[in-house]
């Protein structure tokens, strides 16, 4: 599906506010933020540290709840679900990739990839095993499948985490600084994987500080002081890895 | 769920040190309970089985005067007496042929050893007693150096004869041969009569066809009526409370056994409670350490119940492992206790067996305790949200009261401040381990306190009241001045005092007639200003030279009969003469249980025995046990030479006070040993728990340790910190436990054990127990912190600062 074609809205954030209560008082992190993501988009979320990027992702995944406003993902009102429903829904609809990989150290890569399938109960045991190995093969880790996370490199752990995020074939992938802990070469290979997944129809939202990567992502949403400062869509030649000027510049304020 | 079970297995297998600690803590509690329940059941079962095999009597009485054979036969015509059997007993002196020193022994005889009716005695080897041939009790060879095939001389009433031991006998059922302190010889009736000059039965026992309590009581009343007709007095003789009637399915000392094991069981429950606290700490720490893993699992789709089950499986595995460890060890421990009692009570060894009740309880405790302990942390853990779980990577720490106090103590060394701050940073964990160590300390010091109490009661307290070194009891009354002067001819005798001591009965004034429930007492007639007896008065006053009909009674007698100062009681002597006396004081005496003290002259007057006494109380110049013993034997010879026969065992079972102290303390050593076993278990649980907590502290502060090392801290400094934390926790627990242990020991000694043993113990605090526990907890703390300290020192900066 191309960028220019009409697509179903997969994420709808409507006038979301998030305020934290700390010892010194209240800290507003997100302020009246609205965002729509179409199915199949690849979006980079950028901005200075501490300005609300990860908080925004947490709103979408249900890890955190807005103080005001609505968050809908795939038509489901996320902030209305309780923790258990959220967990199940998350396992089926969202794949999360963390900066620090967050693989369970006690389980092998293959077992880590199987876990989300076990939790949702979508597949039989045999199917889970086959699918886990297939996903690991897809990310180039077929021969590392039975190793513990501590036995493989950071890049390989992140690949395994990506495989895990695809376990239940979710439509939406959320990545919070997925290359932040990797060297540039490894980061590049991870990014290639994301591009490939996007080509296959996955919607990706990625928080990143890596300018080289940002420039290659079709849509860039910049968050500053809790607002969307800039929401730009790049030219179709974004996939040629050439920097390009924005076609559209939107400011939510 | 496969991956969660794999995770649980990983936690179990790859964290072996932690698994060992948690499993040991649970297992020790289960072992303690298994030891107590299993030991009690095995011992009680063995005693009960063998007691039944002994064909126990339904009624057993000591009679005075002893019954003739005709009177014994007449008993069998009483309703409810299907069988009656007479026993003859005498205290004798004996020595191996060729030896010089005489020792005391019991001589038992029956109507016919080959036709026994009740409380059977088996022939282990050799022959039954026959004319001029004795039998001896089994174990006499090991305990007293006399056995089958040897010849002995026996002396009774100045009559000495030589006999050969041709058989070894053993009472069927429990028989506390060790506690007797002397061997038991068996003679046939004709031999007994020729030696002692008596063919009457001082003990009788009866059985009916079928036992019923009401029936036995009715029979006993009928026997009492018969005895009243023939002028015979009777008293129950069954151990330990001189019961007249004993249901055959309740072995002797069953209540005593139950009371002792109840106390041990309570300690066992304390050990389990400690284990629950420690497991709570461990599971809480596992959850805390794995908060972010829980968050990740929930982020990728895990529901709360799935996370719960994953950790529940781990807790269940701990419990199952603990059960597997505790069952054989608890059973072996119970078997060890059983063997101890088999030896003490001269029982047949039934061989090793499992007590299913104990095993079941152990399994239940081993599995239920960790589940109970883990419930709260597991439920709290699964409530953790993803957001709480996954976003904390730096060094953090809350600031509370402890931290603020520590921050103000600027003048203390930095490492000490760090130790204090680190120790109490996780306050809940610190509180739980301190509570656990306090429980261990209280029980341990309480056990030592009880031992101190028994040693004090039957040592310092006893000798502070009974200030003489030796005591002789004469077979007949003699002139007091003669006895004292003769004693003073011995160069080691510093002072001698003679008293009149006679058996009697006591009842309240308002009870018109004698009853079998009247108190069996000894009347001690002594000079009111005696230098040999320093009473420990608890109420009223001591005797005065002007008292005519005043008595001081023992605290135990006062408690049993509910008599107090001012009450008037009727005393009956052996000639059935009755006189009324007023109680003017109540005294505590660990040795004289049911005794009454009165002025010597008043008793002599009442007995029409002016100037006559039958006991001698002596202070020696050289008061060492050996010197006192030698002096006692010399005096016995001196009096024997002048035809003044003495009983072989004095007034209180031994000739010298040192021997009395030694024998009574020895009797309580079993109780102390049982308590000490529990004390050791509790100390080990405390040590294992402390080690677990310190390990957790090190694990949680890996990053901190890495930072310290990166800014210059040496490994030794890190080790010192860990050891310091352990020692601080130990000392804080000691400070709290010490004031709690004193009332606990007091209550256990003066209420718990006193009731159980029917012996009033006196408590005096000594610091020994407290100092021993302080030393032990310090050593435990250092050992417990050794492993975590070492692992802390080995943490590399790179590893600890990497996520």
Give a description of the structure.
The complex is a heterodimer of chains A (253) and B (803). The longest helix of chain A is centred in the C-terminal third of the chain and has 16 residues, at 184-199. With 253 residues, chain A is of the alpha/beta class. Chain A contains seven helices and eleven strands. The model of chain B is unreliable at 392-397 (pLDDT under 50). Chain B is an alpha+beta fold and 803 residues long. In chain B, helix 2 (16-53) runs antiparallel to helix 11 and helix 14 crosses helix 22. The A-B interface holds A 54, 58, 61, 63-64, 83-84, 87-88, 90-92, 96, 98, 100, 102, 104-107, 111-112, 114-116, 118-120, 125, 164-165, 167-168, 181 and B 1-4, 6-7, 10-11, 14, 292-293, 296-304, 306, 385-387, 390-391, 393, 803.
Put simply, the count of helices of chain B is 24
Strand content of chain A: 25-35%
Strand content of chain B: 15-25%
* Shape verdict of chain B: elongated
Which regions of chain A contain 5 or more consecutive residues with pLDDT less than 50?
1-6, 235-253
Mean pLDDT score of chain A, rounded? 85
User: Which structural class best describes the helix and strand composition of chain B?
Assistant: alpha+beta
Please bin the fraction of helical residues of chain B: 40-55%
Sheet having the most strands of chain B: 6 strands, mixed, barrel
Q: For the CA atoms, what is the radius of gyration of chain B? A: 34 Å
Radius of gyration of chain A: 18 Å
Sum up the overall morphology of chain A in one term.
globular
Helical stretch tally of chain A: 7
Mean pLDDT of chain B: 87
Chain pair forming the biggest interface:
A-B, 34 and 28 residues
Which structural category do the helix and sheet elements of chain A fall into?
A: alpha/beta
Strand order of the largest sheet of chain A: 6-7-8-3-9-10-11
> What's the oligomerization state?
heterodimer
């Amino acid at each position: 599906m191309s960028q220019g074609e009409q697509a179903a809205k997969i994420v709808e954030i409507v006038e979301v506010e998030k305020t934290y209560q700390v010892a010194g008082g209240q800290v507003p992190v997100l302020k009246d933020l609205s965002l729509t993501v179409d199915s199949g988009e690849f979006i980079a979320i950028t901005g200075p540290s501490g300005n609300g990027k990860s908080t925004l992702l947490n709103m979408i995944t249900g890890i955190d709840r807005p103080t005001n406003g609505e968050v809908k993902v795939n038509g489901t009102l996320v902030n209305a679900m309780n923790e258990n429903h959220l967990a199940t829904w998350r396992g089926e609809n969202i794949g999360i990739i963390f900066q620090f990989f967050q693989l369970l150290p006690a389980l092998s890569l293959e077992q880590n990839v199987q876990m989300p399938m076990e939790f949702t109960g979508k597949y039989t045991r045999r199917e889970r095993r086959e699918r886990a190995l297939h996903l690991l093969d897809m990310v180039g880790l077929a021969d590392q499948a039975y190793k513990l996370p501590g036995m493989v490199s950071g890049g390989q752990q992140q690949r395994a985490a990506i495989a895990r995020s695809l376990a239940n074939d979710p439509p939406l992938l959320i990545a919070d600084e997925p290359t932040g802990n990797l060297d540039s070469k490894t980061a590049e290979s991870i990014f290639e994987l994301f591009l490939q997944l996007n080509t296959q129809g996955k919607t990706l939202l990625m928080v990143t500080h890596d300018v080289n990567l940002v420039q290659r992502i079709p849509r860039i949403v910049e968050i500053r002081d809790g607002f969307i400062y800039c929401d730009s869509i790049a030219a179709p030649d974004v996939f040629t890895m050439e920097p390009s000027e924005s076609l559209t510049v939107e400011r939510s304020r | 769920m496969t991956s969660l079970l794999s995770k649980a297995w990983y936690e179990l297998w790859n964290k072996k040190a932690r698994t060992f600690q948690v499993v040991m803590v649970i297992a020790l509690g289960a072992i303690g309970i298994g030891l107590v329940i299993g030991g009690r059941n095995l011992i009680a079962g063995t005693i009960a089985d063998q007691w039944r095999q002994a064909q126990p009597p339904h009624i057993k009485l000591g009679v005075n005067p002893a019954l003739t054979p005709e009177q014994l036969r007449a008993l069998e015509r009483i309703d409810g007496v299907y069988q009656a059997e007479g026993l003859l007993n005498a205290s004798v002196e004996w020595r191996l042929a060729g030896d010089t020193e005489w020792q005391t022994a019991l001589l038992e005889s029956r109507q016919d050893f080959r036709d026994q009716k009740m409380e059977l005695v088996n022939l282990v080897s050799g022959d039954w007693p026959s004319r001029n041939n004795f039998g001896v009790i089994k174990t006499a060879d090991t305990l007293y150096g006399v056995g089958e095939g040897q010849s002995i001389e026996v002396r009774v009433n100045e009559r000495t004869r030589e006999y050969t031991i041709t058989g070894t006998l053993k009472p069927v059922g429990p028989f506390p041969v060790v506690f007797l302190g002397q061997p038991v010889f068996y003679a046939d009736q004709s031999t007994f009569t020729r030696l002692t000059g008596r063919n009457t039965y001082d003990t009788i026992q009866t059985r009916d066809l079928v036992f019923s309590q009401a029936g036995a009581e009715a029979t006993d009343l009928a026997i009492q009526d018969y005895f009243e007709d023939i002028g015979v007095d009777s008293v129950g003789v069954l151990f330990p409370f001189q019961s007249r009637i004993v249901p055959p399915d309740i072995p002797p000392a069953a209540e005593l056994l139950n009371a002792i094991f109840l106390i041990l069981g309570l300690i066992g429950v304390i050990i389990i409670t400690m284990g629950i606290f420690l497991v709570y700490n461990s599971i809480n720490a596992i959850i805390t350490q794995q908060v972010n893993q829980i968050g990740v699992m929930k982020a990728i789709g895990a529901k709360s119940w799935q996370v719960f089950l994953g950790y529940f499986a781990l807790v269940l595995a701990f419990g199952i492992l603990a059960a597997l460890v505790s069952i054989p060890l608890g059973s072996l421990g119970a078997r060890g206790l059983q063997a101890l009692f088999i030896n003490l009570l001269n029982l047949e060894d039934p061989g090793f067996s499992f007590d299913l009740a104990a095993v079941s309880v152990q399994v239940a405790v081993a599995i239920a305790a960790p589940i109970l302990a883990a419930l709260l942390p597991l439920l709290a853990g699964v409530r953790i949200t993803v957001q709480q779980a996954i976003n904390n990577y730096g060094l953090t720490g809350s600031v509370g009261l402890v931290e603020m106090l520590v921050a103000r103590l600027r003048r203390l060394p930095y490492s000490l401040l760090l130790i204090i701050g680190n120790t109490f940073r996780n306050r809940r964990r610190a509180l739980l381990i301190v509570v656990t160590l306090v429980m261990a300390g209280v029980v341990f010091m309480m056990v030592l306190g009880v031992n101190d109490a028994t040693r004090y009661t039957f040592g310092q307290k006893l000798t502070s009241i009974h200030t003489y070194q030796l005591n002789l009891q004469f077979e007949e009354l003699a002139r007091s001045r003669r006895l004292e002067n003769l004693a003073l001819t011995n160069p080691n005798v510093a002072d001698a005092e003679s008293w009149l001591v006679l058996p009697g009965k006591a009842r309240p004034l308002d009870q018109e007639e004698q009853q079998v429930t009247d108190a069996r007492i000894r009347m001690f007639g002594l000079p009111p200003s005696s230098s040999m007896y320093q009473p420990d008065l608890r109420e009223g006053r001591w005797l005065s030279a002007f008292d005519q009909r005043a008595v001081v009674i023992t605290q135990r007698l006062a408690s049993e009969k509910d008599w107090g100062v001012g009450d008037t009681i009727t005393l009956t002597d052996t000639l059935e003469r009755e006189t009324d006396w007023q109680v003017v004081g109540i005294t505590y005496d660990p040795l004289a249980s049911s005794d009454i003290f009165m002025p010597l002259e008043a008793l002599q007057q009442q007995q029409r025995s002016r100037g006559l006494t039958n006991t001698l109380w002596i202070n020696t110049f050289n008061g060492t046990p050996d010197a006192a013993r030698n002096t006692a034997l010399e005096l016995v010879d001196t009096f024997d030479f002048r035809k003044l026969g003495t009983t072989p065992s004095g007034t209180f079972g031994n000739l010298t006070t040192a021997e009395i102290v030694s024998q009574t303390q020895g009797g309580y050593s079993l109780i102390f040993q049982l308590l000490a076993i529990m004390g050791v278990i509790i100390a080990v649980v405390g040590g294992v728990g402390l080690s677990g907590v310190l390990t957790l502290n090190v694990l949680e502060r890996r990053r901190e340790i890495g930072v310290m090392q990166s800014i210059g801290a040496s490994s030794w400094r890190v080790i010192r910190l860990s050891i310091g934390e352990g020692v601080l926790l130990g000392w804080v627990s000691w400070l709290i436990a010490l004031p709690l242990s004193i009332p606990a020991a007091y209550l256990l000694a003066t209420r718990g054990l006193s009731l159980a043993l029917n012996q009033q113990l006196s408590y005096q605090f000594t610091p020994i127990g407290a100092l021993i526990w302080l030393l032990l907890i310090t050593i435990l703390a250092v050992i417990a912190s050794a492993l975590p300290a070492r692992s802390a020192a080995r943490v590399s900066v790179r590893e600890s600062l990497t996520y």
